[in-house]
Amino acid sequence: MKFNPGFDIYPLYNPLGFRYGQDVFGPQVENRSLDSIRQNLMDPNCQGPDIVYAIAMDVGRNQDKKEMLDRNLLYGVVTYAKGQLGKEPVRSQGHIHALSPSCQMSTCEVYEIWTGEAYIYMQETAIDNPGRCFAVHAKPGEVVIVPPGWAHCTIVADIHQNLTFGAWCVRDYGFDYQDVRAHKGVAWFPIVEQDKIEFIANSHYHKSHLIIKEPRQYTEFQIEKEKSIYQQFIENPDKFMFVSRPQDYQELWKDFIP
Q1: Where are the alpha helices (DSSP H) in 176-253?
Q2: How many CB atoms lie within 10 A of CB 249?
Q3: Which reactions is this enzyme annotated as catalysing (predicted)?
Q4: Alpha-carbon distance 245 to 70, whole Å?
Q5: Model's pTM, two decimal places?
Q6: Is CB count within 10 Å lower at the N or C end of the chain?
Q7: Does domain 16-247 bear CATH number 2.40.50.140?
Q8: Is the pLDDT of residue 2 over 90?
């Protein structure tokens, strides 16, 4: 792996998973099957990899665990299969972060791509009018922030490569699938056309406009370029308090552009 995530961890691809270094804690990975996400895909009867992705929530260096617990922060890692789910690229089903008991708010998520390429797709709501919709095309070393309350999913942007990313989350996270499932998915479906990703509107929502863009620099959160978000936590454990205490950053979430 060319990208250095900031601690001793390595993605595995056959089968999907992770190998932890000696000083690293982490759980046994959980696998998400195609059958478990079918209802939110464009074609619920599609064919594709049986295991769509492997996820390990709460990983890191042993010496950092107390700092993470003190700030109610969790670092998660995910690896996706290559290929397609019918006409769509491999992707997650989409959800909204449920209200976390610790802050009584939906919380944000800070993604960092390690291998492959991703579209981090997000929309303001999952009700009939989805509001603003973005698909942020990210490559290794690039960071994308999904703000509190937005529906979002992760899409493999290069179907010939495995996608791996790490993310800062709140520890008492939860997922709300209700509105996304009621609309049979997110507002825009990715489809593969001659190895390129195109997007088509989901007819179960009102008409919306999709903005496809590159990641930006999140200067308002002091996110540094060319330094892993885990290393940035090591150097300043308070940097990601906006993840676990989003209520303290309300002005920064207004009119947020990812």
Answers
A1: 178-182, 229-235, 241-244, 250-253
A2: 17
A3: alpha-D-glucose 6-phosphate = beta-D-fructose 6-phosphate
A4: 12
A5: 0.97
A6: N
A7: no
A8: no
